Amino acid sequence: MDENSSRYIDAFNDIEKWLRTQIADSNRFDLPALIDTVADSHFAVRRHAAKLKDLNRFRNFVVHDFSRSKALAVPTKMAADVISAIRNDLLSPEPLLSLAAKPVATCRPDEPIRVAVEKMREGLFSQIPVCEAKTCLGLLTAGTIARWLSVDLAANGGLVEEKTIAEVLGHQEDSDNHEFLPRVATADDGLAAFDRFLQRGMRLEAILITENGLATEGILGIITVHDVPRLNHNSTM
Asked: Staple 181 to which of 8, 27, 172, 185, CB 3.0 to 4.6 Å?
């Protein structure tokens, strides 16, 4: 068997073994059905499902041909690279924290809004977590600031930079604009979170990474909606 065929079959066998560890009684499923079943609860498998089925059909030709000592179907280097990359994505996924911005700039709810605005301007970002000690109380966005500013100027006029961040945060259109994920989360976990919000017709502004995915643990890293193309790039074969 040539090198590309060996790499291709080894990688696919690794994937199938891993898939069968993901559900109980997996031996009753053929591979296409197994892929569909695991994909129901696993975002990365769902993303690769169609390609895996196509590559499995080709694998059957490769395996059967070699069992008869005939090389009627031989994978190219590209095919071996593709299935190897999918194996790595499923079995050794990219940690989400490695792609996150860190350390994370935060602000306190009792600070004047100008503090948050200055940090956002200096850091060139449009979201900033509002934290009291290690507990995250919410995510302040440029959109919320703009909404509050239009209301405050219309009602009161005058200087606004000393108003507290807590007051501004109360003008959020939707406080459910962020999600907490644990340190062990993968890039695909991040993509799945953005996808869940999209399926609900909502916009996930940021993922905040903490040790165990709790709001009270201190923020280790942040992934914003603007990072989605980069997450897709790291998870695309």
From this structure: 185
Spatial separation of the C-alpha atoms in residues 54 and 49, rounded to whole Å: 9
Q: What is the pLDDT of residue 237?
A: 47
Query: How far, in Å, CA of 188 to CA of 57, rounded?
Result: 25
Q: Which residues pair with 48 in a beta bridge?
A: none
Alpha-carbon distance of 34 to 87, in angstroms, equals: 16
Q: For the CA atoms of 169, 199, 226, 88, what is the dihedral angle to 10 degrees?
A: 130
Contact 26, 83 (CB under 8 A): no
pTM score, whole prediction = 0.83
Measured from the Cβ of residue 24, the count of other Cβ atoms closer than 10 Å reads 5
Distance of alpha carbon 155 from alpha carbon 171, whole angstroms: 14
CB 106 within 8 A of CB 130: yes
164: β partners = 112
- In the prediction, which pLDDT does 65 show? 53
Task: Please state, as a whole number, how many other Cβ atoms lie within 10 Å of the Cβ of residue 94.
Answer: 16
User: Residue 132 half-sphere exposure, CB side, CA atoms within 13 Å?
Assistant: 6
Residues in the chain: 237
Q: Which two tokens stand for residue 22?
A: 């993901």
Q: pLDDT of 174-201, one tens digit each?
A: 889 999 999 999 999 999 999 999 999 9
Closest CA to 139 of 96, 86, 176: 176
Instruction: For tokens 């009792």, name the residue.
Output: 110
- Give the pair of three-digit tokens for residue 44: 């990365």
